[in-house]
Amino acid sequence: MRGLRYALLLSATAVVPLAGQRPLTVTGIQSLTFGTLIPGIPSVVSRTDAVKSGRFDVGGPHDTQGRLTFTLPSVLTGPAGATLPLTFSGSDAGFSQSQNIGSQIGFDPKQPFLMTFSGQGRGSVFLGATARPAPTQRAGSYTGTITLNLTAFP
Questions:
Q1: Which residues span the domain enclosing 85?
Q2: 47 with 127: CB under 8 angstroms?
């Protein structure tokens, strides 16, 4: 049986706040990973999976709101240009003010999400997905990039 290795790399962007405000930060902490996949069998990683889910930490002005938007790949790219389909469901993302994977508010990563920074100006965003390898999927390593954008409101 052939194995497929899968990993999504994280990237981040933030909009610079107004003068005098705490700067925005977005940091990729943990990549979303599936490990070895079996051709023809979908593999799901939940946003609450502490080992495999992706994680970003965000920071900004305490007790203020921000908007989270993702740029999500629909496929991963592998050897010789092979692609592996990737899907995100309506509850594959989660936000936690306390930065605890067990206390998330779920949301659809395909839609903008309005979040509120904690009293310390922090939060974490978690992400899961489904990989759908074809029965004839080429063996090898597959990668893609997820970008999280953060915009704070004055």
A1: 4-152
A2: yes
Whether the Cβ atoms of residue 123 and residue 48 lie closer than 8 Å to each other: no
Q: Does an H or E element contain 143, and which? A: strand 140-152
| pLDDT given for residue 1 in this prediction | 33
- pLDDT digits 0-9 by tens, 3-19: 344 444 554 444 455 55
Reference 147, options 6, 32, 22; nearest CA is 32
Q: Tell me the per-residue pLDDT of 73-104, one tens digit each, with 9 for 90 and over.
A: 999 888 899 999 999 999 999 999 999 999 99
What is the CATH classification number for the domain harbouring 136? 2.60.40
Give SS3 for 41. Answer: coil
Amino acid at 108: D
The total number of structural domains that make up the chain: 1
Beta bridge partners of 146: 10
Q: Which residues of 66-86 are buried (b: 16+ CB within 10 A; e: fewer)?
A: bebbbebbeebebeeebbbeb
